Amino acid sequence: MPDSPWNSLEVAKLAISVFTIVILVFVPYWIERFVRKLESVNWINQKVIERKLQVYDETIPLLNDLLCFYTRVGNWQDLSPS
User: Fold this and answer.
1) Domain count, the chain
2) Of 2, 34, 44, 57, which has the fewest CB atoms closer than 10 Å, so is most exposed?
3) Could you tell me the residue range of the domain that residue 52 belongs to?
């Protein structure tokens, strides 16, 4: 059998060069996708926290008035239940 130019060393070098190109093309794409997903999750969490704070700011004074009325503390005499 004549010597083939495709011995195992040449095949390994070819495979490594192909894998290097694949890695250099796809890894940044995967990293960018992951970062975008993290930014999206962070944005959603920020909006949820903002909404929770808004609801908290609206309801706490009313709940404090109820607590004052039922425990007869503070300005409970000025309050009347609806």
Assistant:
1) 1
2) 2
3) 8-78
